[in-house]
Please model this.
Amino acid sequence: MGWPSEVVNLVLPLFLLLELGTHCVAVDRSSFPPGFEFGFSTSAYQVEGAAHEDGRGLSIWDTFSCIPGNILGGGNGDVAADVYHRYKEDVQVLKSLGTDVYRFSISWARIFPGGSARHGKVNPKGVQYYNNLINELLQNGIEPFVTIFHWDVPQVLENEYGGFRSKRIIDDYSEFAEFCFKEFGDRVRKWVTVNEPSIFATHGYGNGKNAPGRCTTNGGNCAAGDSSREPYIVAHNLLLAHMRAVKIYRSKYQQKQKGVIGISLYADWYLPYSSSKLDVDATQRVLDNKLGLYLDPLVFGDYPYSVKQLIRDRLPVFSEEESKEIRGSFDFIGLNYYMSSYVMDNSTSSDPTRKSDIASNPGQDAPENPDIPDTFATTTSQKDGIALGPSEGGVEYWISYPRGIKLLLDNVKTKYGTPPVYITEIGYVTLDNGQPLQDILEDTERIQYIKNCLCYTLQAMREGADVRGLLLWSYIDNFEWNNGYSFRLGLHYVNYTNNDLRRIPKASAIWFQQAMNPREAPTAAILLVP
Ligand code: BGC
Model:
């Protein structure tokens, strides 16, 4: 399978010529090197449901979703897509799509309903569920790719010591992680310690949009919090928890189990609004704050200089020992890419043209507040009235910019010494506002977006990025956190009406299935200028 390198060398430079405004028309599995892995990602709270069954304990998301006003449309994950009961059917869906790897997370409170062994026993039914799922995947030729923590802290630990605000979480998290290695590691060879520490920290403790819903009370909707400090404390504890889990895996399990371990980072891309030094520097500050805050410690052992300068005594410090230990604590880096924005220096954002660009569409992070805390920078998704890309599926701030994945991969390669990468999430959103089902099923924009991302990933690989696989979010629609069920990102539509929960393939599922099972000769990725 795959193209001989001479062909790749002939065809791929096309990308270099047509970098702007390109349109990927033909790409499939055979465009990629042999062994490149494709798959899908989900997380426990977003798909499993069965929230109050078989001894599962509560997590901060169960609590947060119940508070009126927190979730668009008022939903919660009690039933979600009901994967807990439908995993066999879903494994067949994954198989028919041509999936190599399936990334799912393990619900901490399903394994330890009390948060840790200190608070009671392991829940055998929870363990059984994940054993069943793993076995079912393997029997169908799909490799499990497990996320240990995808935002669902057991509520007991939040009550007891404030969850990730306290260093005490590190012991409880690593006990849970070790339990997973011990119990599932004979069959699981790919581990993600933490999903998107930055979103967990900023949305949970900065703007309060996600569980546990903390932020500075002054002007915000939160009951308590400190947006200027807590996100950094939480980020720091997440990194230390990651480091401890990797240490345990490497010292006790890796040699025998022969797996790899990494972390998934939220990694949207940022471009300078202009080529002025002010905007270029502001863009670097934002990248340092969003990505470097996590990736610099992992690769270099410390936070980026600009972050330390700007956050000063609000930023926790790594001891010498921790710095040594965190450096290199990964076998791969997972990158989750969804969108991009322009960045301008804060001091320039009152200029009338710039101001109107910000007002028209303030950028990805906080549509209602385009300023990114602690960066002296402002985001916008348009420049001189022209958008960076089209909005996705009716969500105004969610700008489609597939080229961002290439720019991100280039940056990670150049700045961080070409680490092995899995793109652990890429996805395209559609807002469900009651449009006819047929319109949602005909998701041609999603197909084009995925194709473009594949082409840009290939281009980055051609230029030296070490990308091992690409996972889409996701094979089904699911509970999209504070956006509830109104944001649909699946290749299959899930019919939530009356808990019917049928999975109905969208056009993208049919396209993906064909792209993963190409029947003819290898396909060169072909680009056209629209
Ligand atoms: C998260 C997922 C989420 C996806 C789409 C990512 O930031 O890891 O949990 O569903 O974005 O919104």
